[in-house]
Amino acid sequence: MRRSESSPFRGAALTHAGMSGKNNEDRFGVSAFTLDDEADTPVLLAVLADGIGGHRAGEVAAEISVETLSQVVAESDGDQPREILHAAVLDASQEVLAASQGQEDRMGMGSTCACVWLIGNRLYTVTVGDSRIYLMHNGQIRQLSTDHTWVQEALDYGLLQPEEVKNHPNAHVIRRYLGSVKPVVPDFRLKLEDGEREESALANQGMSLFTSDRLLICSDGLSDLVEDQEIAGAFKDRTQEEAVQFLVDLANQRGGHDNITVIAVEIPPEAMPKKRRSRWLLRLVLLILILAGLTWLFWQTRQRLGDRPILPAASPTATLQQDLPATSLPGLIPTSYPADAQAYPVITPSPASTSTPLETSLPATAGPTYTPWPTNTLKP
After folding, report:
1. pLDDT tens-digit series, residues 310-361
2. Per-domain residue ranges for the chain?
3. For the domain bounded by 2-149+175-271, which CATH number is listed?
4. Which helix (H) or strand (E) holds 111?
């Protein structure tokens, strides 16, 4: 992949510290690339990280997470997106953990991450923590990611009811984060249906999106205070930039107890797959053009020559010499001429002309008679 100064993807992003007065520990990054293929496929990478830890340690962890994830993806060829994202998450977690060691004010720092990688219209994602990824399609919204929190696990095991989640004391206890001593487990599930099996959700990686589909990535500062349907409704009568601003303002109006970050990306027509011409077809067309040019050159040459047939060049004729009897050969030289015939000079062999007999003599038995080429031609 190579970096691009511009991108056909239409995006908007905004972050806000919220109303609690604490530092903004959210970080995000959006990068545009072009795939090195025949179609120059557009690529977009959007990363959001929500830092964990006090004394500015959270923002350090979030910064490291965004930079490491973005760098690993940027240095790849984009050939195996899921494997590349997996390696990027592991590297980011190790970098955060290494930065926290040996410094007391950074001990225990960490970060969530939500990453969207668009290669043309194909979607690849990875999440760690409770930052979310939504898909809006035909006016409907669906949460694609799964929260890695205590309350989500309680819901999955049937220990809690959905109405008990929001005000539960463990609502913000996360179970996975970058920088943990325990090896982090990236989540590649993309849930398109309620109750979708894990194998099916994993198989949704690389799913094709449609023109005007919209992806939204947000930190829990938004999702804690704004319902899913409200998020979808914000884009109905507003531009993308206006909708993002509206959502941040709405969260702040409802308390803004945490940092708020929103990234929205709309799929453009340019991201749709292009019809690619096969190389063999291009080679065939080139061959046809070459043959047509050679044919045209041949006919031009024929016209310059006046369409005259080209006779083969005369070549010397080898003559087999042997001693012949002095008697004249019948039919070779006529004994009489017509009255109007013209006399032709008689060609007498030169005395100096000698012949070298062949080492092997011809058989005495009767065989074909060699008739010399006529030297005289009668004129009518």
Report:
1. 545 544 444 444 444 444 444 444 444 444 444 444 444 444 444 444 444 4
2. 2-149+175-271
3. 3.60.40.10
4. strand 110-111
